[in-house]
Amino acid sequence: TAPGDNKRATPSKVDYDQVRKSISALLDDNNYDDGSYGPLFVRLGWHASGTYSHLDSTGGSNGGCMRFEPESGWGANKGLHLARERLESVYRAHPGLTYADLYTLAAVVAIEEMGGPTIKWRPGRDDHKDGKKSPADGRLPDAAQGAQHIRDIFYRMGFNDQEIVALVGAHSLGRCHTDRSGYEGPWTNAPTTFSNEFFRLLLEEKWQLRRWKGPKQYEDVKTKALMMLPADMALIEDPEFRKYVVQYAKDGDKFATDFAAAFGKLLELGVEFKTTDGSRHGKNESFWKRI
Ligand code: DDH
């Protein structure tokens, strides 16, 4: 069963700088993957948020519902219990902190600690008591599909083509696991360092279908040590997406800036932030003046 809700202090009492430090302290572990939970924390924040639909305003990171069935059991979320379990001590140590804020802040801290850009983040997500408000399964992208599917998924969240390409640049981080998605291997040679290497490799390496028993994926011809998903290859096959891949491969700073903006937006989809007088507002308002 998911951890219950303790009596929580008010969010304003939480020291988020301390929360950030607690998260940072959990990133490194030489016995896990490439030595860091960072990429898994990024995937946690992304999957917590990427369920949003602007058509009916359902889904998104508010509620912290991934800790409950049905979301915890979705195929797309396989392996993310490891991130949630690792972060449990941070939740316990900071009364008033919500899981929903924690899952998103963990992604932000991970990106920053792995050499990525500063990402705007603010607290204010509530925790739901159960998973009843989770949308139906199927809102996260399917790696076997192409450009049309990617657009369907991300336009539903409210992103445009440039933001989509920037976001998928997160695949400079981490790797695929056969016991989670079925795919295998890292995208880059430095999977715990934020960079534009994903885009450079897409354009500069020759990619061929890997011959193996697993799902259809690509390997680099030269070393066969790196991988691309069919959905990654769609970014160079589709001319509109490709424009941005070329731009980000050339200009790592532009990528970092655009990624930070899109990722910050992703983490706020569907979240209404409380104002100091108890009324509610969405984004674009005066929060940044009062923090
Ligand atoms: Fe991803 N991703 N992702 N991804 N993702 C996987 C791992 C990681 C897709 C499929 C997969 C984004 C977009 C897409 C990260 C971040 C982001 C895995 C492997 C698959 C499969 C999971 C496993 O086996 O462990 C697809 C399809 C898309 C798409 O857009 C079409 C986005 C937008 C992000 C983001 O963060 C903004 C990260 C990080 C990982 C590495 C996790 C790890 O454990 O390492």
Q: If you had to describe this structure to a student in words, what would you say it looks like?
A:
The chain has 291 residues and is mainly α. It has two domains: 11-139 and 263-280, Peroxidase, domain 1; 147-260, Peroxidase, domain 2, CATH 1.10.420.10. It is built from eleven helices and seven strands. The protein has helices spanning 16-25, 38-49, 80-93, 99-113, 147-157, 161-168, 197-204, 230-237, 239-250, 252-268, 287-290, and strands at 175-176, 185-186, 207-209, 218-220, 227-228, 273-274, 280-281. The strands form three sheets. It has a three-stranded antiparallel beta sheet with strand order 3-4-5. A hairpin with an 8-residue loop joins strand 1 (175-176) and strand 2 (185-186). Helix 7 (197-204) packs across helix 9 (239-250). The longest helix has 17 residues, at 252-268. The chain is globular. The two termini are 35 Å apart. The model is unreliable at 283-291 (pLDDT under 50).
Number of helices: 11
Low-pLDDT runs:
283-291
> Assembly type of the shown chains?
single chain
Approximate strand percentage: 5-15%
Looking at the structure, the CATH topology of the largest domain is: Peroxidase, domain 1
Widest beta sheet: strand line-up: 3-4-5
